[in-house]
Amino acid sequence: MKQTRAPSTIHFDGLSPLEIRGQCALVRKVVMNALPKPEADAICAWYGHAATKAKGIYGIRDYSRHRLSTTSEEATLAIAWSVYATGWRRKYVSTRKISKEYGLSQSTVMRDKERIAENARALETYAIEHLTPIFEGRGLIEMARDH
Which candidate, 71, 88, 111, 143, has a CA 20 to 30 Å from the CA of 103? Predict the structure, then answer.
């Protein structure tokens, strides 16, 4: 059975591992060169790995700083990491652990976490709006159909 994909999904069907690697390199290059830094940071924070993810999270934290109640660099970084933590990593950056570690109230940590998450979602949305026509033009994703 053939799987159908959303129009915004990058297609790797029928590609060799080397061709997939080339597509990934193209996507990374476009993200880094075609987007404003905050939007590139949002994409890297969500989809990046290791150092790329960390760089994106630092960028989102820095972009969000003016909206945060917390001023400690380490605390704001822990809060930003908590936005992106998945699976077993969540327990290491819970609001409870962050509030205890940095002497903050849980409500402050939760509020700052939501502010970072709001900024990240908005930046990711803008990034996708900017990337879609580029990826459509290069054949990486299907052209959006108007219904």
Answer: 88
DSSP 8-state class, residue 105 = -
pTM: 0.86
Mean pLDDT for 71-89 is 95
- The residue extents of the domains of the chain are 17-137
How is residue 103 annotated by DSSP?
A: T
CB 52 within 8 A of CB 42: no
The backbone torsions φ and ψ at residue 91, rounded to the nearest 5 degrees and listed phi first, read: -65, -20
- Structure tokens, 76: 């704001």
